[in-house]
Amino acid sequence: MKTQLSYKSKYFRWWMLASFMLIFSTCNVLDKEPLDVIPETIVWNDEKLVDSYLTGAYLNTTVLNNEADDVANSSKPFFSIFYVNNVSDESKSTSNFSGNAYQYKVNGLKINGGLLEYWERPYKVIRTLNEIIENLPSSTVSETFKKEKIAEARFLRAFNYFYMVKRYGGVPLITKVQQSTDPEEELYPKRNTEQEVYDFVISEAKEILNDLSQIDDSNWGRPSRYAALALISRAALYAGSIAEYGTVELGGVVGIERSQANRYYQESMKASSQIIGDNRFQLYDQNPDKTANFRELFLTKRNSEIIFAIQHDGSDKDYSGAGWSYDYFQCPFPNGWANGIHDAPYLEFAEAFEYIDGRPGTLDFESLKGKLITIDELWAGKDPRFLATVYTQDTKWQGRNLEFYNGVRKEDGTILTTGSYNGVLANGDQKVTQTGFGVLKYLDEKKDNGNSSTAGIFGSTQDFIVFRYAEILLNHAEAAYALGNEGGALDALNQVRRRAGIKELTSLNIEQVRNERRVELAFEGHRYWDLRRWRIAEDYLSRNQSGIRYILDYTSREFLVEKRLNVDGAVKPPIFESQHYYLPITLARTANNPNLVENPRYK
């Protein structure tokens, strides 16, 4: 049986087909379905069908899109692409569609879970990948095709395990297709140690390096050897910091012995060095305007910095359900559903951006008290990445200036906060009661977000970057610093700062390494996991954050600037406790499989 599928449409058709086929879960009896039957839609000797089956695995690896639980199912939280931002110290959620993510930030995470879950879905994907890995060697397809597709399947399997281990610690490593006749200990597997899972991810990626295809127009969006090296670079760095800062518990099911830290840092630095040394990628640096350049990096498809990205062409709008809706929920007002500014960045995040001359970026609100100032003056000399990452008062957007001000000061000094004064509205056109910022990174000004049709909501064409060269440089810098190679760390980190247009450093400490990641990689799904692997989330994620308030002076059209305190709410400030460094396995999963031990301190 043969089916012709266009490259563009097969992603969506196979989404539905794969959802039907991938009915198996793991760590229980897999719903007691027969597990020894190849799906009848698959003919292993047909390259197009095999490729489409693999495409279904990509589609169901939803975490490729900023840690999302789902992006193409109207019965699921398709806006979960923002959850990892909202539980970090980057932003709070202000949308009517904030879902359940923010409640965990202020209420804490309990044993029943619910936050950033990624368990049942990846095991379904892993079963598909195991089928491909097991069946392709005996098929009649070309040897080149076999080699490439098996390598892709192994990459994606390793990628899924990495996204599980960073959530839960050790998880059961399933590397063969389970059958209903398998021994009980295989159908109800125990959790491997965290170290075993990280070692598996790294070794798998290393073994397939030379079998993955090269990047060209025909296979853009598929992983290359550089994507595998990038996975090693990232995963080994995580393992190194967990070994350095974490605690071993449950016999190694969570935690890694400290003696392993340097081994992992060396693995990370070696992989990063290979990418750097091959000269295949460069930091995007096409526009002399540093702010414009950093914005363009995320809007320019297939540019020199992108190692691996998930492509979006706007065609989600042509299919039932939901889809990629980044612009629609993140954009400024007006918005078709009145739900722009999904992520409202905190003032503390804004202050993490230094000034061009290297001064700390903290605002002195005491000196600003009672002082009229223009927005250009307020942010003068700021790291150019700042105004490429956030929008705020007077940011130019689609031919107008955005208005975040909250209140108009009249000639007599009183401040009006409702209605209008002499034709001037008391409040701007944005969400003035929140933090005073929105996320500009990835936003395309050309998109019509006032259109509440399917095309307007799900027609985003922004690719999501999974790996880019700047991260590799920062991974290299962190690993080199951890190994005592400050010179190598400085060189890599200063390349990123030089492209940004800010003063290069002459010496380095760990806080500078961490802050550079915070500002360069903001809203790309890194910050929450960085705080966790460094074991400093209990401090940073248990703080009540701030915003900024702009008050428009009617006479001068300048602004008074105030600090808005406790924007997360004074009654329930954010909370992160020691058990939250690992997500719970949950009562439901441990009930299904009594061999799964729960993570520490969840009751």
TrEMBL record:
Belongs to the SusD family. Gene3D superfamilies: 1.25.40.390. Pfam families: SusD-like_3, SusD_RagB. GO terms for cellular component: cell outer membrane. It comes from the Bacteria. Keywords: Cell outer membrane, Membrane, Signal. Residues 305-602 form the RagB/SusD domain. This is Putative outer membrane starch-binding protein. It is found in: Cell outer membrane. The keyword DNA-binding does not apply. Residues 30-236 form the SusD-like N-terminal domain. Residues 1-31 form the signal peptide.
